[in-house]
Predict the structure.
Amino acid sequence: MIDELSCQKKVHSIKTIAAIATPLIPSAIGILRVSGPDAEHIANRLFKTKIIPDNYRKMITANAIQDNGNLLDQCCYVFYKGPHSYTGEDVLEIFCHGSIYIVKELIQTITTMPDCVLAKNGEFTQRAFLNGKIPLSKAEAILDIIESNSEASHKIAINQYTGHVYESISNCRDHTMTLLQKVEASLEFPDDVGGINTEAVSKDCSEIIQSLTPIINASDYGSIVKKGLKYLIVGEPNVGKSSLLNKLSGESRSIVSETAGTTRDYIDISIEYNGIIITLIDTAGIRETSSDIEKIGIEKIKELSELADGYILVTDGTSSKPFVWPHFLDQEKPIINVRNKIDKPSNNYPNGSLGISCVTGAGLTELKETLVHTFVDPSQYEPNHMLCNLRQITALNNAYSCIKKAQEHIELKTTLDIVCIDLRDAIEALSDIMGDSFTEELLDGIFSKFCIGK
Ligand SMILES: Nc1nc2c(ncn2[C@@H]2O[C@H](COP(=O)(O)OP(=O)(O)OP(=O)(O)O)[C@@H](O)[C@H]2O)c(=O)[nH]1
Ligand SMILES: [Mg+2]
């Protein structure tokens, strides 16, 4: 564990950092960020100016001039005097024309100034956290906002950022602390406070469990929103797997032909339905074959199978031949049975499989619904009450099982020491969610996932 003071000292003893904050592609504007004790000096040197307090937090237009007198660009910049900045340090934000050359030259010019180095991933946000500008939970929510790729994931991330869910978790922690104090008191001062009331402790545990349960259930949805769902489209050759991929995505990505064995390599496309990103992977038709290339394609399905959340098994509705589920595919994962080509009169799809047509589009909305609903029902969840950060979800589950253990131990009349340990572990796990206690390793793990410049 490292305490905040030593962190702050460390931050201030290290150098000024600089980074490009926008993607390195030709664009209207390029943004660079600088944070640290030399930010003001860098602005003065680059823009041949002297920043005055009246100009703090104001957009100033100025020429960026390199040390050799070369005019690099006409830029705008904003200088934030610490602690009134994102990181809590002096911060300089530079807005230049979005030419790759200008952006690269600017970062080169800035980072060759004494005591200024290129920032590492997430280092700006890490400094904001270490300087007490934002709690760790908020820092992680920023990452979730940046990574959000659907309406649902954005909603959850924004709610995490505004902190509603943490209020509930913080209340659970307070409740657990009060309970721990009660148990500790009767353990240490039995003569003063009397023996433990097993029923009352168990009731408290039930109440905490009840408060955590909706967050846990909702967070299962949150984690699906965050990572999306991956389905492998499998079946015999020529049943319409590639047609299905194309029809669902609205793109003509996979080659469709009446020749059996057309697809050899796999092709994946992501679609969004009900706020969930679903990655569909079209694969080679599964059959006994003498073609080496086709065999490799079928081998690939085995590898892909491990990463998939489920399968869409496509059969041809006009054929009565049953599909024999190959041993190398996981039977435990959900299998969505679809019978394709229901537009053809000879189609006789049985109950238990979903009839679709890649020609008319029949059944495809039901199919998309099934793909999501097999794992989760989005209408049941309130984004206010969920987490989508996997580290925080793990800590939440951990806290839940510690409270459950405490309840079991108290009901079994196990020694109170053990109950105290369970409750302390639960408090620690709940604190972990909020990031109130942290290790250097944890911080490195969190901030390394950020992009440079954030
Ligand atoms: N009538 C009808 N024809 C379809 C439908 N879906 C696909 N087809 C036709 O079926 C044939 C095979 O389609 P593909 O999508 O290439 O089948 P596949 O399962 O990917 O085949 P392989 O890549 O060889 O494994 C093509 O001629 C398609 O036009 C459908 O819903 N109705
Ligand atoms: Mg195909």
Observations:
- Confidence is low (pLDDT under 50) at residues 1-12.
- The radius of gyration is 29 Å.
- The pocket of guanosine-5'-triphosphate (ligand 1) is lined by residues 237-243, 256-258, 260-263, 285, 340-341, 343-344, 357-359 (CB under 6 Å).
